[in-house]
Amino acid sequence: MLTAAAPKIRILFVQNIVILPKDYKLDKLFAIAGDLQYPFLDMKAWKVFLEVVKSEKPDGVILNGDILDFYQISNYPKDPKRSTTIDKDLEGVKKYILDPLQFINERWWMDGNHDQRLERYLIKNAPALKWLPKQKAITIPNLLNLHEEGWVYKPYGDYYQLGKLWVLHGFMVRQHSGLTARAHFDRLGTSVIINHTHRLGTYYSTNARGPHISVENGCLCLLKPDWMQYPNWQQGFSLVHFNTSSGFFNIQQLPILQRKVVIFGKRFYGKDYNSSGEDKQSSKDPGRQAMEATSENYGTGK
Question: Could you tell me which of 111, 138, 144 has the C-alpha nearest to residue 36?
Fold first, then answer.
């Protein structure tokens, strides 16, 4: 039996640009951001992400873990000046993060270790509540009505694939940029994009199966924690183009510098995008206002 040979693909990497044959298309685009850690989200950086999403119109968005911080139930000392409550944080996540992304067709919520603080708190302090029926359980999907709002939920430790690229929050930390990406590649043995470290970094490896990449995807939270001086963190996010049949993908990592992103010479400053088209978070959200009054500090101990 004669079968048509698979087309030969010529791939040339030039400063993160991929050259492919005209008939070989990257037919899907996803935007990936993580470590928002609401209510300690940097709203200016978040607006940059939203502006890029509005401009590029991706097929899907992945919030890659630590969307919520759950500061109130962490194991770390709490600043009594912070008046934010869990119910206010949930309202803020819906209003400022989920609602502005409702126009995106595919939306994924990936839990991170900070999101998991809720489950750990219940297991430690109220284990009987874990036996509630799934539809009545105290979980992030239920508290935010994720399924009803069209979001796909993945628990901490799970992953999603964009072609041959794994997307997960991450579960290891190394000291320098790129080393955590390498550690995840060594453990998983495949191309992967993670958050978790609050850093931007890239690691490449070529083996018998071909070239691989592992990426640390930065953060969108504020950069002045009260538990660490001069943290080695970088804000940013990524756009991933991929081919649904072959699995081939290309990652464009976008650092946010001075609350701006540049894509092929076009600058994105972060316009006012929320569910009502207004930017009045500080005046309407007392918890947020209290934290901004404390010099944009936040506590996000791992």
Answer: 111
Rounded to whole angstroms, the Cα distance separating 132 from 150 reads 23
d(CA 104, CA 150): 10
CA 76 to chain centre: 23
For the chain, 302 residues long, the average pLDDT of each consecutive 10-residue run is: 43 46 77 96 95 95 96 82 85 96 97 95 90 89 96 96 96 95 96 97 93 96 85 96 92 92 83 47 44 37 37
Q: Is 157 left (phi over 0), alpha (psi -120 to 50) or beta?
A: left
Strand ordering across the sheet containing 28-33: 151-154, 106-110, 60-64, 28-33, 236-242, 249-255
Residue 62, amino acid: I
The DSSP-derived string for 41-92 is B-HHHHHHHHHHHHHH--SEEEEES-SB--GGGSSS---TT----HHHHHHH
Class of 32-298 per CATH?
alpha beta
pTM above 0.90, yes or no: no
